[in-house]
Amino acid sequence: MFDFQFLSYNAQSVLLSTFLLGIAAGIIGCFAYWKRQSLMSDALSHAALPGVVLGFAVLGEKNLFVMILGAAITALLGAWMIHLIRTSSRVKEDAAMGIVLSVYFGLGMMLLTFVNKMPNGNQSGLDSFIFGQAASMVNKDVWTMIGVATVVLIMMIIMFKEWKLFLFDPSFAKGLGLSLTKMNVIYMALLVLVIVVGIQAVGVILMAALLIIPSVSARYWTDSFKTMVILSALFGGGSGLVGTLISTLGSGWPTGPFIVITASLLFVLSLAVGRKKGLITLYLQHRSKQIFNGLKQMEEGQ
Amino acid sequence: MCSALTVQVQDLSAAYRKSKVLENINFEIKPGTMTSIVGPNGAGKSTLLKVMLELHPSIIGEVLFFGEKYQKAKSKIGYVPQRGSVDWDFPTNAIDVVMMGLYGQIGWFRWPNKIHKERAMGALSEMGMENYADRQISQLSGGQQQRVFLARALVQDAELYMLDEPLAGVDATTERAIMDVLKCLKERGKTVMVVHHDLQTVEDYFDQVLMLNKSVIAHGPTEEVFTNDNIMKTYGGKLRWMGGKLNV
Question: pTM of the predicted model, to two decimals?
Answer without folding.
Answer: 0.86
